[in-house]
Amino acid sequence: MQKPKIKEQAILVHIESKASEKESLSEFYNLATSAGADVIQTISSTRKLPDPKYFIGSGKAEEVQKAIQTTQADLVLVNHTLTPSQERNLETLLKCRVLDRTGLILDIFAQRARTFEGKLQVELAQLQHLASRLIRGWTHLERQKGGIGLRGPGETQLETDRRLIRNRIKHIGKQLEKVRIQRAQGRRSRQRSALATVSLVGYTNAGKSTLFNCLTGAGSFVANQLFATLDTTLRRIKLTPTEPLILADTVGFIKNIPHTLIQAFRSTLEEAVYATLLLHVIDASSPEREEQINEVEKVLKEIDAHATPLIRIYNKIDLVQIRPHIIRDPLSQKIKEVWLSANTGEGIEFLQETLVETLRNGKVCRIVCLPTSEAKLHAYLHERNAVQHECINTAGQWEMTIELSKDEFARLFEE
């Protein structure tokens, strides 16, 4: 029988500083519990400026030190981004492992990664983060020289570690480039078949995977925790017999997401960049809803996906007692918001109607006549479910009413 995993006891440290961006303590608590920590104490304070040595100040550092001695905590989690020297100074003083916000997010990603690509992306981000924090921790082998069997080129252990990390980063980069090429090939294949791709994006724990399962019945992992989904999942669905599309569930975003993670997950995030339509899933019950919307839009801009058409999906309306509905732009009359609950299924029909209406806006409906010599094209149009009506005209040709995307219609009939 496998023993249950013992949770690490952690102390959370949260400092409000005018010089740093305000972080949510409740969100940080959720990050800590999502990583598997047992939070036994929270220490908060306010500073005008971060302390250059400890970030939290020497007095607050001593308070944390006493709390560790009292609680026998294993770990100190700081709700800010620490410099390598600040992290090192705190660990020296506290005689305890110290992890900042970035390190904690990286640890959660490492736990959640399931696919080969996801694991590579997380390892790359971890190595990039570690490379900036590598310290001389091998004083007993500071200089590899002198003594039988110890003579060498004189490379320090620190330099050896850095070289190994650089080599590993380079190797992972090559592997991820192969994955990126494979993804690009898959996208080109979908574009040739004129399949629309709809990507779910949004803040972590907004309910993207629940909505994905509701629309596809895929059974993707769902949990009430941050970053429950890390690996992009693609499913083909049919909203109507003639409206197939690809739905993509992507990794969630978070405030001040580490830049190394954005870079490492660029190939995954490209599903949002090249999507036909983005569905921005929003937790309607969150008190920090507007801040979360701004953070997601900021990341979309950073990855060059801000120009892609987007509809906001306000999820979890069952928690705020709001009826499902849609909101249209007063000028264009295009749907810009859908309010629903993926958990109960309320309002899902509004989303399905929205997708059909929005994706049809980019299509054309035409009557074409094909001679019997174009049997291959005739069969292809039926395979694409593009034929709305068909008959044989007086000239013995197929007279067909077809509906296709503008690009595909131009490719088939206007070349």
Let me know the CATH homologous superfamily of the largest domain: P-loop containing nucleotide triphosphate hydrolases
Proportion of residues in helical segments: 40-55%
- List segments where confidence is low: pLDDT < 50 over at least 5 consecutive residues: 136-152
How many domains? The number is: 3
Radius of gyration: 27 Å
Question: What's the mean pLDDT score?
Answer: 81
CATH topology of the largest domain: Rossmann fold
Q: What do these coordinates show?
A:
- The protein is α/β, with parallel strands linked by helices and 415 residues long.
- The chain has helices at residues 25-34, 58-71, 84-94, 101-112, 116-131, 157-192, 208-216, 259-264, 266-273, 289-302, 348-360, 375-383, 406-413; strands at 8-17, 37-47, 75-78, 97-100, 196-202, 233-238, 244-249, 277-283, 310-315, 325-328, 335-339, 363-370, 387-392, 398-405.
- The strands form three sheets. A seven-stranded mixed β-sheet has the order 6-7-5-8-9-11-10, sandwiched between helices. A four-stranded parallel β-sheet has the order 2-1-3-4, with helices on both faces.
- Strand 3, helix 3 (84-94) and strand 4 (97-100) form a beta-alpha-beta unit.
- Helix 1 runs parallel beside helix 4 (101-112) and helix 4 (101-112) runs antiparallel to helix 5.
- The longest helix is centred in the middle third of the chain and has 36 residues, at 157-192.
- The termini are far apart.
- The relative contact order is 0.08.
